[in-house]
Amino acid sequence: xxxxxxxxxxxxxxxxxxxxxxxxxxxxxxxxxxxxxxxxxxxxxxxxxxxxxxxxxxxxxxxxxxxxxxxxxxxxxxxxxxxxxxxxxxxxxxxxxxxxxxxxxxxxxxxxxxxxxxxxxxxxxxxxxxxxxxxxxxxxxxxxxxxxxxxxxxxxxxxxxxxxxxxxxxxxxxxxxxxxxxxxxxxxxxxxxxxxxxxxxxxxxxxxxxxxxxxxxxxxxxxxxxxxxxxxxxxxxxxxxxxxxxxxxxxxxxxxxxxxxxxxxxxxxxxxxxxxxxxxxxxxxxxxxxxxxxxxxxxxxxxxxxxxxxxxxxxxxxxxxxxxxxxxxxxxxxxxxxxxxxxxxxxxxxxxxxxxxxxxxxxxxxxxxxxxxxxxxxxxxx
Length: 382
Known about the structure:
Helix content is 34%, strand content 27%. The chain is of the alpha+beta class and 382 residues long. The protein has two domains: 2-119, 3-Layer(aba) Sandwich (Rossmann fold), CATH 3.40.50; 130-145 and 228-258 and 273-381, ATP-grasp fold, B domain (D-amino Acid Aminotransferase, Chain A, domain 1, 2-Layer Sandwich), CATH 3.30.470.20. Strands 4, 5, 6, 7, 8, 9, 10, 11, 12, 13 and 14 form an eleven-stranded antiparallel β-sheet that branches. Strand 4 and strand 5 (182-189) form a beta hairpin. Helix 4 runs parallel beside helix 5. Residues 52-73, 165-180 and 206-218 have low confidence and may be disordered.
């Protein structure tokens, strides 16, 4: 059995920062897991994909042992070389999976689908999830709790609220209220990784000129939602197909470390993801709610393979609000693979595509795994 595992940061070269470190960790985790099943793993590596500056892209290595040097994102030529390597290796593989930023994942997934069996989410699912506004609207339509989308102008919001009762308006504004009666909002890119360039701001700041938080104001590049105060957690699930429907296996609920960068007046201005704890106990009721919602999300969006879903557990009402859906392995997969006791992570991916997933109660986990990017450490606990 030969399996393609392509990770964008390692394959393109994005410098020596956290993106490359996380990419190497995910690639190594999947590679080793498939190898323990007896598979041969093929993975593009930056130095060989491009054969150096101006290279031909004729080679592709195996594994994640070598780093790459480059900018925060790979250049156009590097991305083209990476895509060519994915296509070449996919043709030699029995199955494959790609880990990449949302804005490039759809096209790379199509390459895999056209040349081998895709172990990840379908490209159509990836395309939907890459658009945070579309995803939010779809989930809201299905009755899944999400932070309320906010219009880009007061006038639009007021028109959208016509017909609502005064009480309803007061309740809606109260959710997410922070500080001394000041309504707070979250502004994040509409497309791409939602963990990057996520800002918390008040109403007046949404459209201010200048400053990072106002970048994209009034354009289609950012979305604004209400700020839900609460605990940042995520769920790791694997989705498979059963007949004409889907089967969703919840693996773990995870704690997310989110650093709050503060502005001059001490208010929260920017949110940065810095790791987490796998698994994390949130209480029986909250865990049941998160798992049930995760299953509904994965089914609604037609997810397959591994899916990471980000939540905020509302401080006021305890509701689990979906804030992002990642249709690909996330960094939490490093911890998930470590705490699984009686199943190999790669085996579950394979079963989701070619067989039948086990029941939730059949999958055992033990211990915990801490991913702390602020200390550049991955630690397995007892």
